[in-house]
Amino acid sequence: MKHSLLICLVLVLISCKSKEAIKNNEMMPIPTFVYPLSTVGNADWKVDNGVISCDKGEGFFQTTNNFQHFDLSVDFKPEGDINSGIFLGCQGRELSATGCYEVNIWDNHPNQDFRTGSIVTRAKPISKVDSKGKWNNYMIRVRPGNISVMLNGTPTAFLKVDSEITSSPIAFQKFGKGKISFKNFKIERR
Q1: Single pTM value for the model
Q2: CA-wise closest residue to 103 among 58, 136, 66
Q3: Relative to the CA of 100, which of 9, 81, 118, 160 has its CA 20 to 30 Å away?
Q4: In 36-71, which positions are buried (b, 16+ CB within 10 angstroms) versus exposed (e)?
Q5: Coil, strand or helix: which one is 124?
Q6: Please, what's the largest Cα pairwise distance for the chain?
Q7: Alpha helices of the chain — where are they, by DSSP H?
Q8: Are strands 70-79 and 51-54 parallel, antiparallel or unpaired?
Q9: Is 16 part of a structural domain of the chain?
C-alpha cells in the first residue's frame, strides 16, 4: 500500500512538472519548418531542449519553406551587444535590410530609429520596448499590403507595403558580440 501511494505521488509530480514545462514551452521541439537548420555564414548555432542559440560567428539560420502571408510568433533572448533580427520577404538570395524586411533585435542600435521593434530602414518603432537580457516575444503579421510587429504584446511597428511581399524563407540573424537565443516558433499561413 505504501509503495502504491509513493508511485502515485511520483506520477502526479512528474505529470505536474510535464504540464508546467509544456505551459512554459520549455520542452517544445523545434518544428520541421525550422529544423534541420539551413544556415548561411559561419554562426555556430546550437540546438538544446527546443532553444536555438548562438554566441560565436556571424550569420543566419532560416526556415526550410517559403512564407508570404503569415503570423509568426517567436520568443527571443538577446544578451550582450548582440545585433540580431528576423528577415522576411527577401528578394533574391541576399539577406540584407534593403533586400528583405528586417524586424530588428538590437536595443543599442546607434540609430534608435532602427532599434528593437523597428523594421530597419522602413518603419521606426512607435513604442520603445527594451529586450536585452530576458525572454521576449515577437508577433509578426504579414498580410497583403502591410507588416505589423508586436513586442511583448506592445505594437512597435506598422509598415504599409505598396508592392506584393515576396514569398521567401524567414531568416534569423546573429551578428556582433553577445548571444542570441530563439524558441517557441509558431507560424501560421494566412
Answers
A1: 0.84
A2: 136
A3: 81
A4: ebebbbebebeeeebbbbbbeeebbbbbeeebbebb
A5: coil
A6: 72
A7: 2-23
A8: unpaired
A9: no
- d(CA 135, CA 13) in angstroms, rounded, equals 26
- Report the domain count for the chain: 1
- CA dist 182 and 62 (Å) reads 12
Q: How far apart, in whole angstroms, are the C-alpha atoms of residue 162 and residue 150? A: 21
Residue 15: inside a domain, yes or no? no
Q: Between the CA of residue 94 and those of 9, 30, 33, 111, 169, what are the distances in Å?
A: 55, 25, 20, 23, 12
Unique residue bearing C-alpha cell 548561411: 40
CATH classification of the domain holding 81: 2.60.120.560
Residue with cell 528583405: 100
Residue 180's domain comprises 35-189
Please give the angle made by the CA atoms of 58, 101 and 146, to the nearest 5 degrees. 155
On whether residue 104 sits in a domain, the answer given is: yes
Q: How far apart are CA 24 and CA 22, in angstroms?
A: 5
For the segment 117-164, what is each residue's pLDDT rounded down to a tens digit? 999 999 999 999 999 999 999 999 999 999 999 999 999 999 999 888
Give the cell for residue 151: 513586442
Domain contains 7: no
The CA-based angle 85-119-90, given to 5 degrees, is: 70
